[in-house]
């Protein structure tokens, strides 16, 4: 069992800095990641979980504050024409270059543990570009538009993962929280195929693994917390795990505490899911 907590935001306050300062400074991000590695019994170094970085690279507006994580506001794309005109940014656009630089700085410190860059998942990124509530309607009314947008978000995230690897990262960890609020059928159509592409790309660049985190607490889950849901999750992770194995990489689960997510909150729960998913 490996201990790889996402701690950057709480620790940065301990170091005497604000969240607003942290999300705009590669030096501060690297300092925080290094402090966690040197002072806590972690098995890997994880970059910050800032799910606004990639949307901002596409041109979305982001609201910053001293005490809260950045929030994407407004709607960047709302129809097929806007999606068609949307340009896939380079992996160093906006603050992406800063997060990649932070990983490179930590690697240069020779911390002696794997270093992972953090990024959002393809469907969750698409939702931030259309507005999350609007995305729920688009799935039903404009599925072709959603797929066209997902092609662009996936292409960008693959290039972003490659940038992390070029900076020395041992892998990436990916949060796909919006997939937790759609039906299993919609997940199979609008999230899973695109996540698999990123996992395939991770294997191609020699990534140690792709870390997956659960959906977050303010979302309403699409399935109840019962045995049926557990079996469904294990089935999905078995399929994704076998796919990762064929592509020379690994799917790694990252449980979060109860204030942050509604499922898979304990290390023991993640361990049980890994066991029951029956993937090598």
Give a structural overview.
The chain is an alpha/beta fold and 280 residues long. It contains 13 helices and seven strands. The chain has helices at 8-14, 19-22, 26-39, 53-58, 80-85, 96-108, 122-130, 132-141, 143-166, 184-190, 192-204, 227-246, 267-277; strands spanning 45-46, 61-63, 71-73, 115-120, 171-175, 210-213, 251-253. The strands form two sheets. The protein has a five-stranded parallel beta sheet with strand order 1-4-5-6-7. Helix 12 links the parallel strand 6 (210-213) and strand 7. The chain is globular and about 50 Å long. The two termini are 14 Å apart. The mean pLDDT is 84.
Short description:
With 280 residues, the chain is of the alpha/beta class. The chain has helices spanning 8-14, 19-22, 26-39, 53-58, 80-85, 96-108, 122-130, 132-141, 143-166, 184-190, 192-204, 227-246, 267-277, and strands at 45-46, 61-63, 71-73, 115-120, 171-175, 210-213, 251-253. The strands form 2 sheets. Strands 1-4-5-6-7 form a 5-stranded parallel sheet. A two-stranded antiparallel sheet has the order 2-3.
* Count of distinct strands: 7
Strand content: 5-15%
Order of helices and strands: HHHEHEEHHEHHHEHHEHEH
Radius of gyration: 18 Å
How would a textbook summarize the main sheet? Answer: 5 strands, parallel
Q: In order across it, which strands form the biggest sheet?
A: 1-4-5-6-7
What class, by secondary structure content? Answer: alpha/beta
Query: What is the mean pLDDT?
Result: 84
How much helix is in the residues? 40-55%
Shape: globular
Instruction: Measure the end-to-end span.
Output: 14 Å
Count of separate DSSP helical elements: 13
Q: Which blocks of ≥5 consecutive residues have pLDDT under 50?
A: none
